[in-house]
Design a protein that fits this description.
7 strands; about 160 residues; Nuclear Transport Factor 2, Chain: A; alpha+beta
């Protein structure tokens, strides 16, 4: 009888722990230094992305970056990302973080994972707006943060 109740109790404890950690991550305190750091990094990266500042983008991305995109596929390495931005994004697309969607979780002895929803605008066509989900893995090496893995998925037109 005790063994029968042990597994459901253990599963309930794990589920409650996950739910509580998710609530914490979605509603960060203004004083949460990890959330503030990653939010600031996201802002810096995408300001550079939107302005085609490839030097800043490059400084925030690891040489061995792995970028996965549900439409265009896998892009290995920093240079592949920079080439893609230069050829397909600069002057054609801007990105904004959808307010209230940012989640940040620590990754022990590594850095952080960032999850959210971003919106893409095409300045030449105001009706062409899309959204996608993203996951970004940030590595912190001696206080220097870099993106090592990124996944952008579930791209779809924004419905009004």
């Amino acid at each position: 009888m005790k063994k029968t109740l042990l597994l459901p109790g253990l599963l309930l404890g794990i589920l409650l722990g996950l739910l509580l950690s998710r609530v914490h991550a979605q509603t960060p305190a203004a004083s949460d230094p990890l959330f503030s750091t990653v939010q600031s990094l996201d802002t810096k990266f995408f300001a550079a992305y939107n302005q085609c500042d490839l030097a800043t983008v490059s400084s925030l991305v690891a040489e061995d970056l792995e970028f996965y995109h549900d439409v265009t596929g896998f892009s290995p390495g920093r240079q592949s990302l920079l080439d893609g931005l230069k050829n397909n994004i600069c002057g054609k697309v801007t990105r904004e973080l959808v307010p209230g969607t940012l989640e940040v979780y620590p990754v022990a002895k590594y850095g952080a994972v960032e999850i959210g929803v971003h919106r893409f605008h095409h300045p030449s066509d105001n009706t062409n707006v899309g959204e996608a989900k993203f996951i970004t893995l940030w590595e912190n090496k001696e206080g220097v943060w870099k993106i090592t893995r990124a996944i952008s998925f579930d791209h779809h037109p924004l419905t009004k």
